[in-house]
Fold each of these.
Amino acid sequence: MKQFYLKQFPNEEGYFGKFGGSFVPESIQKAMQEIDAAYNLIAQNSDFIAELRKIRKHFQGRPTPIYFAHNLTREYKGAGIYLKREDLNHTGAHKLNHCMGEALLAKFMGKKKLIAETGAGQHGVALATAAAYFGLECEIHMGEVDIAKEHPNVVRMKILGAKVIPVSFGAKTLKEAVDSAFQSYLKDPHNAMYAIGSVVGPHPFPKIVRDFQSIVGIESKEQFLEMTGELPDIVIACVGGGSNAMGIFSGFIDDSVELVGVEPLGRGEKLGENAATLSYGEEGVMHGFNSIMLKDSKGEPASVYSIASGLDYPSVGPEHAYLHSIGRTKVATILDKEAIAAFYLLSKKEGIIPAIESSHALAYALKIAPNLKGKKILINLSGRGDKDIDFIANTYGYGEVY
Ligand SMILES: *Cc1c(COP(=O)(O)O)cnc(C)c1O
């Protein structure tokens, strides 16, 4: 399998082992096949690749650096702690990596409009940014709970010219926003392109988003080798749908590097109190793909919870389900309160305010670092925390104890 993992998975029907696929009505199936065919065509096209490279360098500000967290490393007296700084990617998170790719694909296909859901608002902001860049219309569906919690991102989307559609049914969070966005897309698949926010959804989205995010892994491997002369021992990323994790994991998947996905344990292990899908879920189909999901007593997607809106999802990318099932990746969990502690620590000790999502990955790294002297840990710092500061300061204060 060496060196060939990314080329082998998914197969032509979009399967990673038994996970993935496309469970959608006939009418959408056709639209999905068109997107897949267009993507396969442009992925080989040197003009498309050159255009994407130019955008990454001059618009997004890539490559993002790897930073050696010297203060935390000294304080924890164990493994070296390194951060891949996706918080420095334009718009403040890794999501623009796949949004620029998806929008370029939409442009290539002659689409006029981008439609998507958003949780924390990060995907909405990234897609609205991409839409502005390419001169496309943009419609973002967002749960009312998240709209209240992530106000600055809502304002950003509107300033960028996107239409924000509040979703007021069910738990009013990410899962309902996906349903709502999909319904809107169904009305006009000819002129619109659905631009999903993670490595989830029906084939070909998990593949497309993974491929666009793989730039994080490619850069990380090169930069880490240049910095330290070797590969990291452990790579850690938070997992909501799983795009930032797949992005960085994909660079190391054929190497002997431990890969750990960190899921949100929220307030605890009880169903409804967390969104730790791989840890507690079971196989099932949701939003058009087969994966591991958290189900309620009726077998429907459970309502889930995390302090991090971006991790608040009852399923997970099918590639994560597969990699976990074959033992290639490990899964860990982090409570809200552990993520909050990590949020304050990185802010005060290194001068970097992380997204509360990314704080989950950091919290797990800080947990294991003291016992791993001589090892090196690379964390994907998926985003910056500006969007979270008001909520955290109002709820928990300024973290004076850290
Ligand atoms: C959306 C988001 C996540 C979670 O999404 P993945 O697809 O699991 O990466 C993580 N971190 C940040 C900063 C986000 O905005």
Note: The mean pLDDT is 95.
Amino acid sequence: MKFLSLSLLSVSALSAFVQAGPLAAMDQLRIFRTSEPELRLIQYGEDTPPKWMTESDKEALFRAGVKYMDITDHRNAAASTFSSWTPYIPTKSKYQSEVTPFIGNLTTDGMVEHLTKLTSFRNRYYKSSYGAQSCRWLIKQIQGIAEGTDHVSVKEFKHKVKKKKKKDWDQFSIIARFEGSNKDLDNELVIVGAHQDSVNMWLPTYGRSPGADDDGSGTVTIIEAFRSLVENGFRPERPVEFHWYSGEEAGLLGSQAVSEAYQEEGRHVVAMLQNDMTGYIGDNGEVIGIVTDHVDEKLTDFLKNLVDNYADIPYTLTKCGYACSDHASWRKLGYPSAFTIESAFDDSNHYIHTGGDTIDKLSFDHMKEFSKVAIGFAVELSHLRD
Ligand SMILES: *[C@@H]1O[C@H](CO)[C@@H](O)[C@H](O)[C@H]1NC(C)=O
Ligand SMILES: [Zn+2]
């Protein structure tokens, strides 16, 4: 509440400030910060220049339904221009006999158990104490699955830099990794992702936000895919990772940090698949929504083939706008990314970002269809093909 009243005092100063443009704003930022609330740099369109705004203006934008990336700490992020490496994306599935047993082992039991606990945290807001607790619980479940293996590791990707800026936050992202068997492909990577945070758009820090669908559903969908792969001895050729991002709802913060770190390390991401909202069946029948805007076209075509091969329901093509989930962070850096969602975007769950985003509105069998596609994605793309 405190920062809200502070920022109200500065509204007129701020609007003049924002109109001066981002470069002028950056020059003055240090002076401005000493007496005024912190400003965030928000990008909400591919061709629209980003704008500086207060945290409360940013929240108002979110409530208005505008999707954005908070690029305050990622101002120079862009695709590498010096890399000559280009990933090979297949057009057709080829490893049905390897994929089928993993899919056959999927159940909804773990998903029910995990989602029940996940939604019991007051919220999973990235910088609330609840969000910090929920990520600690979540990593324990994932570590429990990987326990006893020698080629699967689970680690925290911290967003809190020790004793550094107070704008860092406690909810870490989680990265689970299968090592590849082909050491020549060690620097390559296939990623399946979801976001672990939730938000109540009216009262982010304290408000109740079960986030059952957004994105508890994607979170448990990929845990179940991960579980089946681990328990049934998946040994990929190139490394495969499962990511649970922090801070998606605040402008793709976790995934921007992870993707930028990977780019700095020179890693070659072959493909990334985001699962954000997989539990709600829209009014127009049970389908898998495949997002077609702001995604990699070839990978998205391959995703259609994966749904045809491995899911028991058809896909529908849909659009979700700029920066609508974490795949956008990878795409921005030039990595192929794609996005599966519960239905056509217009048909999706309207209770998200409120206390009403609860389990009773969801179908676990529907989520399981997305686990199948995630397994197909991980296995098919983990192979070296020519
Ligand atoms: C899944 O696979 C595990 C490990 O192979 C096995 O113990 C379990 O019984 C399987 N469950 C189902 C439902 O197939
Ligand atoms: Zn959301």
Note: Residues 1-33 have pLDDT under 50 and may be disordered.
